Structure prediction request, 47 residues.
Amino acid sequence: MFITGLIFWIVYGYQTSSFPVLISNIITLILNLIILTLKISYDSQRI
Prediction:
């Protein structure tokens, strides 16, 4: 759900040409995807 919101904010930042909104949300999305990937890979190793 959080990632979906970030994608919408990225689209909004792109449409309004607001680079601070765009850059901060892209960085947050990348970090969030890293956390999600690590969580999924760690959970699959515990089984």
User: Anything to note?
Assistant: The mean pLDDT is 92.
